[in-house]
Design brief:
Distance between the termini: 50 Å
Organism: Deinandra increscens subsp. villosa
Pfam family, one: Aminotran_5
CATH class of the largest domain: Alpha Beta
InterPro entries: Aminotrans_V_dom, PyrdxlP-dep_Trfase, PyrdxlP-dep_Trfase_major
Number of domains: 2
Number of strands: 12
CATH architecture of the largest domain: 3-Layer(aba) Sandwich
Keywords: Pyridoxal phosphate
Strand content: 5-15%
Protein name: Aminotransferase class V domain-containing protein
């Protein structure tokens, strides 16, 4: 089934009478730990974990605390392998050895970029060779590129994408131009960092086309940062064809924080190591990642339990992806109609998140203004939603410079989006502007 969200009854949802499927009451119970006073339309930042998966995690935690030695020697590695096998199937990897479990996509990025650093240090890459990444790459990944690649002698070129975006062609053209720039002055493009879904603003990137372009251009290392992908869009790593692909399971796959996977097309590539060196160093990236010292590994063990929860939803993971995509589009279109604004992307470039233009009169003219409005919505209206600032182009009249990044997950109801709608309408009618508020 789906839920009773959006005032749909069981019959119209196509729900079955079997106890195995999620009933509306089950769904409310699974997320009853959420603060009921908050309209939480920001699943994209931290995800959500149902109670049944939390309970499974707690059982693992207790088993470790009861007898740590037994758990370490007899249960930890087989349980991690079980999760790796489940991920392999989910993403259509060729072999389980290609799957490493790490804390989050930022850790996955560090592993890849540390590998690139050693390619510079060992003179496989030359000083001044280039790395290409999107201007909208995640901030932590940009910092990792700076820490590993720039400091090793690499030259970084950012792909300037327009926003709002009209089509995939906008991105493909911008990326092609960046690759051409990267090859100028007899340099070689050694690394491409490609988001599958950018975080802010949220845009589904034509990743297969960009990976093929990089292959055709002879880029040595292609890394896809897909922090938001698994659970929100279909992921087939063999079809995508990147050298490395990482995604979080705690954002859209209902696992507790924190767990991600790193897929390595060739896990035997030299100098591929976890940044935390421990006893398994040298035994391959998957085994290195499975033990980085005494810590809580329970989030990495409950992937099968998370999939059990997912399969209780009508249509399983595919049903959840389609439901969230359909609903986030419906809510986004409702909001732009009320606010007389626009969406940041075409509908087919939304996943389970959408960029919704905010009324220009709110006066969002900086990143600081965007944060001010976000905090005001949280503190005064109990609405949690990220706000993005878009710098206006020269000559624009009354431009839409602020966008709300709304998420939809199966626990959301239509009232969450009505709360946001009414809060913004109230601010507009009261003459609120970010500038006056900060003054």
């Amino acid at each position: 089934m789906s839920s009773d969200n959006h005032d749909r009854d069981d019959e119209s949802n196509g729900a079955t009478a079997t106890t195995d499927k999620l009933s509306p009451m089950d769904l409310r119970s699974e997320f009853s730990h959420h603060d009921p006073t908050v309209a939480r339309i920001n699943n994209g930042s931290f995800g959500s974990c149902p109670s049944s998966v939390i309970e499974a995690q707690q059982r693992y935690q207790l088993r470790f605390l009861q007898q740590p030695d037994d758990f370490y020697y007899n249960h930890l590695k087989p349980s991690i392998l079980r999760s790796r096998q489940a991920i392999k199937t989910l993403i259509n990897a060729g072999h389980v050895d290609e799957i490493s479990i790490v804390d989050n996509a930022t850790t996955g990025a560090a592993i890849v970029l540390q590998h690139v650093k050693w390619c510079f240090f060992q003179s496989k890459f030359n000083p001044g060779d280039t790395a290409v990444m999107l201007h909208y790459a995640y901030g932590a990944v940009k910092k990792s590129v700076e820490a590993y690649v720039t400091r090793a002698g690499g030259h970084v070129i950012e792909v300037n994408m327009p926003f709002p975006i009209a089509s995939d062609d906008d991105i493909i053209t911008a990326f092609k131009n960046a690759l051409e720039l990267g090859k100028s002055d007899n340099r070689k493009v050694r690394l491409a960092v490609i988001d599958h879904i950018t975080s802010m603003p949220s845009v589904v990137i034509p990743v297969k086309e960009l990976v093929k372009m990089c292959r055709d251009e002879g880029v040595d290392c292609i890394f896809v940062d897909a922090a938001h992908a698994i659970g929100s869009i279909e992921v087939d790593v063999q079809e995508i064809g990147a050298d490395f692909y990482t995604s979080n399971l705690h954002k859209w796959l209902f696992c507790p924080p924190s767990i991600a996977f790193l897929h390595c097309r060739n896990p035997e590539v030299p100098n591929l190591h976890h940044p935390v060196v421990s006893h398994e160093y040298g035994n391959g990236i998957a085994i290195e990642s499975s033990w980085i010292g005494t810590r809580d590994y329970s989030a990495q063990l409950v992937v099968p339990e998370a999939l059990e929860f997912i399969n209780r939803f009508e249509g399983g993971l595919d049903g959840i992806r389609k439901w969230n995509h359909q609903k986030v589009i419906e809510m986004a279109e409702m909001l732009v109609k009320i606010w007389c604004t626009n969406l940041g992307t075409p509908l087919d470039m939304c996943s389970s998140m959408a960029m919704v233009g905010l009324p220009a009169c709110l006066g969002i003219m900086s990143d600081s203004d965007a944060l001010t409005l976000r905090s005001h919505l949280r503190d005064c209206y109990k609405v949690e939603v990220p706000i993005y600032y878009r710098q206006p182009k020269d000559g624009e009249v009354d431009p839409v410079t602020g966008y709300a990044r709304i998420s939809h997950q199966i626990y959301n109801t239509i009232n969450d989006y009505y709360r946001l709608r009414d809060a913004i309408c109230n601010l507009v009618s009261s003459g609120f502007t970010c500038k006056v508020f900060q003054d």
